[in-house]
Design goal:
Helices cover 60% and strands 4% of the residues. With 304 residues, the protein is mostly helical.
Amino acid sequence: MKLAVAADAFLAHLTQVRRLSPATVRAYRADLRDLTAVVGDIPLGEIDLEALREWMWTATQRGDARSTLARRAAAARSFFAWAKDEELITTDPSLRLVTPKRGRTLPVVASAEGVRTMLDGRRAAADDGDPVSLRDHAVLELLYGSGMRVSELCGIDIDDVDLDRATARVIGKGSKERVVPFGIPAREGISAYLTRARPVLASRRESESGSATPAVFLGARGGRIGPRTVYALVAQALSSVVGADTVGPHALRHSAATHLLDGGADLRAVQEILGHASLGTTQIYTHVSSERLVSTYRLAHPRA
């Protein structure tokens, strides 16, 4: 079996058997396509360790980040382990594939005061009743108030939100369900959006297709809002808050986690709120808090 055909079968296995998220499957697809582009669409059994090393060297020369190299190596190991289990190959060439360890960088975090100022400004901008402004304010309040992922926010439906309890049910990575709390400002923002804006946005879709969507947050044309729209909203909203630093799609999530810990929240509670499978993933935010503590000390203490 040639590489491209085997890759398609592997991706189907990830989707149908392992039930990985579409985003994860897309990442595997991109990595395997890159492998095919470098080594060629050759029979799977002809791919050896040297071919994989050539692939990684090409990525290095191209300037790919260490995190990208580590991810691609992991994708190759998963793919060839599956191929061996399926008896498509007799030996696994990826077992001795070595890549640089992924560097861990601290996430970009906005100050609590900066986020508060931004959200207050968004609330004031929504006072004119514009549906998109009301939606954007509710989206930003919920992202910061709950720490949920952008993809999780895009996926929530009306029945998933309990305004009385100020909680939302989300589906996270690995199709794991959890309930996350959010604060009073988020509840007020969502309530205003649901009452004054969502019906207007929903009517646009119904007038075009005649069908409604159960999604909480809608795009300008009335369909479920997409991650790209939310990423752009977050980047624009925080561009003046974070300063010259690069604003990623999870900037509000990072900020919420750090501010929870700064406020004395238990690390395991933050882990549950964020939906991290490993406590080690959550612990990176303790380093962010420590960095802030040291910075504040050096600025404020007369003997620093």
